[in-house]
User: Fold this.
Amino acid sequence: MAHPWGMALAPLQEPAPTSRSSVTGAEAPRAGSAGAPRQARASAEDSLELSPEARRKVTELKRTDQEVRAHEAAHMAAGGSLVRGGASYGTERGPDGKLYAVSGEVSLDASPARTPEATLAKAQRVRAAALAPADPSAQDRAVAAQASAMAAEAAAELALQRVGGRLDVSA
Assistant:
């Protein structure tokens, strides 16, 4: 199943994610609450009465948030130094007033390196980062395919260099 979260090769942009309920979010600042102690705000939110349907929605949002954050963390861990700027998240405000991640993206530097050897190694790392999550999205698989193409091109260039830049097509 395709997920609304994924990764992008810089400068490739991920398609606009579809909204999906998600879990454990960061609290968004509220107007007039800047001076209130965090503990007082949290206890006021905790006492908020939610309908059974709203509680189910919050549970679903928490689950999705956890999945999205784990998915993007897998990309970042595998991408290492190729990751550009960390993960970015699309959020949805739940019935409890908190923000939950419902989509995400990690940008990777997938530009060719200085040599075919380095480009081949870099392409392999990009592909591994794209496929790192347990359930890669369609966007992740597209990035992996682009990285595989870059690797194949670098390997072909290496092969040409090894035969002196000449191919014998008469055989």
Q: What stands out?
A: The first strand starts at residue 6 and ends at 9. The helical segments are 38-46, 52-79, 116-130, 138-162.
